[in-house]
Amino acid sequence: MILKDIISNFSQLYVKFSLVNHSVKRHRELLMIDTCLQNQLKFSWVLADIWFASTENMEHIKQTRQKDFIMALKSNRLVALSEADRKKKRYTRLDQLEWPEQEAVTGWLKGLDFPVRLARQVFKNKDGSEGILYLACSKLEAEWDKITTTYQKRWKVEVFHKSLKSNAAFAKSPAHTARTQANHLFASIVAVFKMECLTVRKKLNHFALKSKLYIKAIRTAFDELQAFRAAA
């Protein structure tokens, strides 16, 4: 009985933590968008993955901030393909729709007050399996090519973040004050920018450049060690 109570309490805590964590992520995205607008940054699209594709975020971006978005959706999101179906609450899962080949359709996501363009993109993996990406776009005149091509640009941001963490020690700051932490983060961003300049010149990605530097450093250290041994 005690074990059952522990498992039950742990499950409740995990669910509460997951809900709070998701809420924090959603709030951070809205805060970043608002900050970009306050700083008068010019941008045409807000691109986001599944974690940020809530109806609240979509409404805030499109209706409150008057910006367009393209967001990835889970396969179980419910959608109505006509205004009549929406009024009668006849919704269908995205993965149960009959999708036209490389064409976007207009639909109403459940809980969303305005229509969006929906696109389905199929990827072929190296092992022969298929990956499917569902996208929602707020610009109703956008076609399949425009939606998928624009959303693909988001991947470069993912590569940038990965390089920040892996090659520039972005998350490993020993600093404790806000000022020194900000300096560390800025220095990491500058380091990745310089690595990108080297990437263009050397035709190597960030990880290949890092490997070459490590190999060079290890070889120099080994040669120095051999010199110490010879002198001993």
Task: Describe the overall structure.
Mean pLDDT is 84; it is low at 1-20. The termini are far apart. Helices cover 54% and strands 16% of the residues. Helix 5 packs across helix 6. A seven-stranded mixed β-sheet has the order 1-2-7-6-5-3-4, with helices on both faces. The protein has helices at residues 2-38, 55-64, 83-87, 144-152, 154-167, 178-202, 206-231; strands at residues 45-48, 68-73, 78-80, 92-93, 105-109, 116-124, 130-137. The chain has two domains: 2-152, no CATH class; 160-231, no CATH class. It has seven helices and seven strands. The protein has 232 residues and is α+β, with helices and mostly antiparallel strands. One of its GO terms (molecular function) is DNA binding. InterPro entries: RNaseH-like_sf (IPR012337), Transposase_11 (IPR002559). This is Transposase, IS4 family protein.
- Output the number of helix runs: 7
Q: Show unreliable segments.
A: 1-20
Q: Pairing-aware structural class of the strands and helices?
A: alpha+beta
The quaternary state of the protein chains shown equals single chain
Major β-sheet annotation: 7 strands, mixed
InterPro entries: RNaseH-like_sf, Transposase_11
GO biological process, one term: DNA transposition
GO molecular function, one term: transposase activity
Protein name: Transposase, IS4 family protein
Please sum up the structure shown:
With 232 residues, the chain is of the alpha+beta class.
